Amino acid sequence: MKKFINSVDDVLSESLHGFASAYAPIVRLREDPTFLLRTGGPVSGKVALVSGGGSGHEPLHGGFVGKGMLDAACPGQVFTSPTPDQMIAAAEAVDGGAGILFIVKNYTGDVMNFDMASEMIGDGAATVLVDDDVAVEDSSFTSGRRGVAGTLIVEKVVGAAAEDRLDLASLKALGEKVNDKTGSMGVALTSCTVPAAGKPMFDLGEDEMEVGVGIHGEPGRHREKLAPADSIAKLLVEAILEDLKPQKGQKALLLINGMGATPLMELTLLYGAARKECEAAGLEIERSLVGNYVTSLDMAGASVTLTLLDDEITGYWDAPVITPALRWGA
Amino acid sequence: MKKFINSVDDVLSESLHGFASAYAPIVRLREDPTFLLRTGGPVSGKVALVSGGGSGHEPLHGGFVGKGMLDAACPGQVFTSPTPDQMIAAAEAVDGGAGILFIVKNYTGDVMNFDMASEMIGDGAATVLVDDDVAVEDSSFTSGRRGVAGTLIVEKVVGAAAEDRLDLASLKALGEKVNDKTGSMGVALTSCTVPAAGKPMFDLGEDEMEVGVGIHGEPGRHREKLAPADSIAKLLVEAILEDLKPQKGQKALLLINGMGATPLMELTLLYGAARKECEAAGLEIERSLVGNYVTSLDMAGASVTLTLLDDEITGYWDAPVITPALRWGA
């Protein structure tokens, strides 16, 4: 295992400390229990957005804390859900008096722990469950579909709407709408190595790719020989469109997300290939994002995400955002 | 070789087309000869900044084209200098009547070709040569020191000053000041694979790292056993400080740059370690950046860059920038 670490036990803590000191004007780190929150304290009268999940998917979720997106993020150990006490402490720290909205990726551990936190908070809390991965129903860590790169789109859109002072019920409905209109699917070219394990999570032949892989290296639909980028783009876009069933002329956001070890040069190439497939299917790509946003440690691979746009979603997507990983308009 | 590509001959072209269509509001692609330029045409009365170099270091340089940074970038083939005709065409396309400033990383091929372009343009052109890498004097592709991640800091600061309408001579002087006050050094944990070669550029043992590696996989100072992140940070920061010789209390910008395949979690951990070393040496870290900005295809590795700040550099660093890879304040 070749990583920039000191000891496997301190990876998460040291990484969070480094992150918080690098982005001190935007985020702050609290410990015992651990969470990241935006600077400037709770925003009075605004619903507070709290997300979280296992670490190893950076910049998700901590990199999306800041104005226009999340109020707080709870990092679990690598690929492990955070605990309810983290979520409750985060919710209390950012509560602006208008309620707490949890944004939760659909994994069994996360759902159970966020449910527990939500129950303890009571009436002022609601949850949006993200399950955008069209690859498989149920998997190693999931009952139902998995939440993957589409999560950042839900967080961005609902975050902007919260700044606009939409109430808790409206934000929950908006988040669920974005999730319904979003589909993702990914491909792994290599495995990834969890520091504490010290070896790759799975084996993949020198000429193989895992189609429909999860962001924890969970098996996808099948394995096949590594194909040209155009074929991979076609495979992924077709699977997503089969799920979303858009009409001709539908406007969409196209996100090409790197899994962590795939260079930008390949991601922009894949973007071009995926965009051609989308346009051939009658979509109009109106918004785009390319980069490493929802990663799987050092996995080489990428995913395609499509969100069908309407004026409300586009408007909130374009609204100002100031976070470590996503920033525009301010 | 596992990459998202169609054929090795089309990697650069397809990647550029994807990039330009993903970031259409900010940049545009021209071909025959190939260069990227900012949208909105030449800015009248502003010195135009043109950079470029071999591809494979994305987002450098194309990702830094836009308001507040570069006017154009000329991408060569992977790890190969662009040609003078690209540079001349780019300069003509963005010429706002106040002169052309070339920002050139110090590699033999780049220097030769940019010199040729500059001579053909004549009086209206000047060059800033970037050679921030403190690791080695001379190397495989260089006479003198190499230009590496500090290049983005020169481009950002000089780009902001150009928006402020500084003249050609002042911008050249500012660029040279930033270069003098900037030092970088990197470590590779793995090699990288040029698509056309199809195999890793060099071999590195399972437990080894290359200290002082170049961004094309050039040899550095020495090889040693992979060390803890704290030791690596100490080694790199000490080498840079030995070169920059800052006074106690000096303000500085700290950039931790990933080489392409190193996850953000490790980069923020390394940031924390490097910052501690800097502070122990009496520096005050006033500005920070962490991410994959000047990469070496799929190399796992990272570099540390320090720029000693004064009010002028800090002010231009903070000024608004709207590029695909660096964006704030607007």
UniProtKB/TrEMBL annotation, chains A, B:
Q: Where is the DhaK domain?
A: 7-328
Q: Which Pfam families did the record assign? A: Dak1
- Catalytic EC class: transferase
Q: Which domain of life is it from?
A: Bacteria
- Reactions catalysed: dihydroxyacetone + phosphoenolpyruvate = dihydroxyacetone phosphate + pyruvate
Q: GO molecular-function annotation terms?
A: glycerone kinase activity; phosphoenolpyruvate-glycerone phosphotransferase activity
**Entry EC no(s):** 2.7.1.121
Q: In which pathway does it act?
A: Polyol metabolism; glycerol degradation
Q: Which GO terms describe its biological process?
A: glycerol catabolic process
Q: Which residues cross the membrane?
A: none
Keywords from UniProt, A to Z, are: Glycerol metabolism, Kinase, Transferase
Instruction: Tell me the InterPro entries matching this sequence.
Output: DhaK_1, DhaK_dom, Dihydroxyacetone_Kinase
Q: Which GO terms describe its cellular component?
A: cytosol
Q: Does the keyword Phosphoprotein apply?
A: no
Protein's name according to its UniProt entry: phosphoenolpyruvate--glycerone phosphotransferase
In its UniProt entry, the species of origin is given as: Amorphus orientalis
